[in-house]
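Input:
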Amino acid sequence: MARIPGVGETAEIAEKGLGGLEHNFLTAKLETLVNWSRARSLMPATFGLACCAIEMMATGGPHYDLARFGMEAFRASPRQADVMIVAGRVSQKMAPVLRQIYDQMMEPKWVISMGVCASTGGMFNNYALVQGVDQIVPVDVYAPGCPPGPETLLHAIVTLHKMIETDELVDRRRINGGGAGIVVEQRDGQTASKVVLTR
Amino acid sequence: MSDEATAQSDALDAEGAIEADPPASAYGVPVTNERDQQVLFPDRDNYIATIEALKADGFVSAVDLCGVDNLTRAHRSLPAGVAPERFEVVVSLLAHEPPRRTRVRVQVPESDPTIATLFDLYPGTENLERETWDMFGIVFENHPDPSRILMPPDWQGHPLRKDFAVGTVPVQFKGASAPR
Amino acid sequence: MTLLDDTTAASTDERVTRRGDDSAVLRIDEANVAMVETVDIDPNADTPMIVNMGPVHPSTHGVLRLVLEMQGEQVLRSKPVIGYLHTGMEKTGEQLSFMQGPTNVTRMDYASPLFNELVFSLATEELLGIEVPPRAQWIRTLMCELNRISSHMLFQATNGMDVGAVSMMLYGNRLREETLRILEKITGLRMNHNYIRPGGVAADLHDGWQEDIGGLLDLLPPLIDEFDELLTGQPIFQERLQGVGAINSAECLALGVTGPILRGSGYAWDLRRDMPYLKYDELDFDVIVGTYGDCFDRYAVRLAEARESIRIVGQCIDKMPPGDYRLQDKKVTPPPRARIDESMEALIHHFKIFTEGFKVPEGEVYVAVESPRGELGCYMVSDGGAHPYRMHIRAPSFVNLQTMPHMMNEALVADVVAIISSVDPVLGEVDR
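Output:
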């Protein structure tokens, strides 16, 4: 009877199949495993801005229970976070802060744009708001609604999980270099500094 | 002190007169009764004196202060003796005993958009005056902190003026440096 | 602790009227704060240093940024820096008609959206010179008080979390969810309802609303009592809040502060009682006041106000009259949905009222209501058209924010978080 160290007795394996192994193991592509584990332990950065932040808090609350998706640990430090949920309207004054926080997050990182204000400026088509947070950071999932209910946010989160698992996002980053890649030019009436948004 | 006293006695006379006949003045300045709300129209020179008299009269807090840009509304109805100007500063005062409100509207010309600050009378107007400066460009003289409050400090223009475009502006982005 | 011992200071507002370096307000230019940070500070030297807190900080209630001048652990002067959520709503409000206005203003104070709609609608109605039917007024009263409960519960959640009682997040949110479920059933949305509109409310209460709301009223009191068990009598919680961030009523009045902060300082002023609007003069409720004006009093006032709101809601159920839920004035109210199917004129009317809106007579008006945060005012100017010429919202949080430097003066840095939380600012309303 031969014994393979760390695997088991050969006769037993022949008899019981996989059940005869001393340790169970499974095979997969390393990428798939990495993506699977990434999707299931996302840590969101708190970026609550406006009305949507209240719904984001409600999502973390007892009724909707974000912990089911392994995401209940909101990190205060961007260094510890993987996903930024931009919850609310982004003002011109906030834009540099938001970008700085995004830059401080470690790769791989993802962005959910929550609500129409973050996605497109929403109903506030005026001087004060950035008309869509995708002008500043690359957005992976847009959650519609004003504000999106917790169900919508959960749907967006599950969608993000699926996208992470299928590697779609990594591919996209590989193609466009990972930045927003948007260059914005100075117009009249605004601040004196020239504005360039790229990495 | 004596000015204040006369202003107060004027006020008392005028308040008595309001009930009998819609009168021309209270606290020595023109007054109207707009939808059952008393509105006083001092000019910039007797603005502080009027507010002082009102404060002495029981108006304990200045609940609101805001600007109005009447660029396209030159022919609005104002009481006799009040010349319309482009800007108005509107102060809402509240008295608790008995509960009543009054409103002070001061005309501020476009050529010289300055007005005295109310900080020493009502320190609570500090934020509101900063907001009015930020949004309309009305300067409050001797204000303790004359800086922008809502817009970024290097913003150009005053957004709530009627000649400031509503529409979107491109995102402006400054300060944060790229990681490499 | 200082104010509790020092009774002589209790009636002066001298502290808040200072404008020089002895003031608690750090009047430093935002642009200069960054410059200050670059100066080399010897960590061993006993000099004050400037510390930035926010705008993205887990305990600053949204995007509030604080610039603190610290001497070791002690705060000397401070300044709240705001504008990170400035949305230009007053400008947008000038573009939207009076009909569309509530959609805009409801997004200001997102913790109590119905109050914003209410004050906008009241101002419009005052300009129009119309009065809405009694049932609409009672529905408005009912909805506002439900909203006050949910807003104060949100405060309990965030306040508990900020002082370290993280589980209060779950308790507060649970109560809020129960209230929001009713609001959603009536208005169709959890937040930003656009339910109260000029001329009445958007829809009548659904069938069986008495049972729904009655069920909520049975459910809430024992859950609110849990806060008493978990927080009010809890020594750690008391230590954390009592004597912290004290402000007296003279200072509150000088700063124009209203709402639970003013009442917490022992001054009974509530617009619902003192300048009644809607149907508050026919309702029986108490105005809650504190004694010391510290963080604990503000917490207790809000908790007790939620109980008063439950009383008011109960009375609203009993007193709700039959009748119309909106004014039948064809100038202001759109035709009912059923009429549109059968009448061409009604269709045109509906189209016109939603595209062009209705014209409002020239004039200006200031209207105020008591929101969960204080006096929420609306100054509206009409030039006779269908859009407001100027729409200014007097946001209670915006004014109340000015108390922070005075409360934080000589407090420890750990108390800063408790003080921010007890002011309960909603940044959407502060920045508008």
